[in-house]
Amino acid sequence: MTKTPSSSFDILTSLSSASSEAEPKLGGPDFHVGSSSIISLREVRKVYDLGEVRVEALKGVSLEIARGQFVAIMGASGSGKSTMLNILGCLDRPTSGIYLLDGIDVSTFSAAQRADIRNQKIGFIFQSFNLLARTTVWENIEAPMLYGGVAKAERARRIEEALKVVGIPEKAKALPNQLSGGQQQRVAVARALVNHPAILLADEPTGNLDSATSEEIMRFLQNLNRQKQITLVMVTHEHDIAAYASRIIHMKDGRILSDEVK
Fold first, then answer.
1. Cα dihedral 52→57→58→64 (10° resolution)
2. In a domain, 1, yes or no
3. Domain span at 39
């Protein structure tokens, strides 16, 4: 099984860094498959071999998500929702089946190729924010662009734009411990936006927030989706949080139990 990153810095590195190995370039003809959906899963299975035990976390899941949708994925522990998010985020790959991300078949990508596509196509929002404690808001937002090789002037332009979008331009020089929980999550959203991702993936984005701040962040994410048409896929176990999405998928035992578009 994949080793879990041990710190915020490790997580950012694993999500953002592109490998220098001689891999085929993303965007080439070998990888593109026509698709009207931003996300397309076709009979995706994920099996974990744990010694003598085999766990089938996803059991032939098929799913289409249109560009600009806000989707919440719900389910009890062991339902497969976290495995689904890992597949969608290219943190893991299917045991079998097809995953098309923005028209690219990423089903069999190597770890290095998945790192590249994460940096190019995916923004992550975590429950625990995963901000670098000893660096400023500006530097936290800048981190994925450093790994992506974005020029300094362009980095500055994107950071300023992202801080305006999330409503905290005055906090650029602050450290994370000088911010409220809601402000820290806004910084995490800004960091997720700066590489202009095709999708945003949110893993229990209000899990560490009180109810009032949770409502504030969810209204913000809902408005971001509506105004910017950013595709947002969120995992949550809370019904009141899922209600902000325009589509709610319930999972059970590795399968989609229901799929409701509001």
1. -150
2. no
3. 8-261
